[in-house]
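FORM 7B: Structural annotation worksheet

SECTION A. Query
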Amino acid sequence: MSDGLFREEALRHHTGGRAVGDVLRIPPAWVRSTFALLVLAFAAAAAFATWGSVTVYARGVARVREDGRALDCYFAERDRARIGPGGPIRLHDPSDPARVLEARIEALRPGPVPLREALARLQISAWPGPVAPSRLAAGDGEIASGSATGGEILTIEAPAGETSLLRLILPHG
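SECTION B. Predicted structure
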């Protein structure tokens, strides 16, 4: 028996160099499969971001007129060119998220409306969104399905075109 802490064989192995080289390390089969899957997923995401399209919505506010069918609609002025007469709009009740009404835009009024004036016409004190546009496009609409009470305030969204996901992600230059 030796007096040292380690066996003689272990010391010789440790101090003596290898003549052949290091041990060949082969990753398990699932590593290659997982890497291939990740590369394919990244390629698919990049392809969709480049060539795929997503629908962009214009959001605003509508006040139901006294007859319960006609609407006074207000969108951000920047969306005027993308929203046209006859276009569909969806009405949402902020107090009841499950309630959704379908409507259409009948006509857009000429010229922008200042935010203060639109808030007075809508009879609300603040724009119901994180950012209030300073100029609004006003329009007339009509409820196509469902019913509403005169004077009711609803949020609206209208399809305003399509764009690529990449254009939404990258900063505009």
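SECTION C. Observations
The first strand starts at residue 53 and ends at 64. The chain has a mean pLDDT of 87.

SECTION D. Sign-off
Analyst initials: ____
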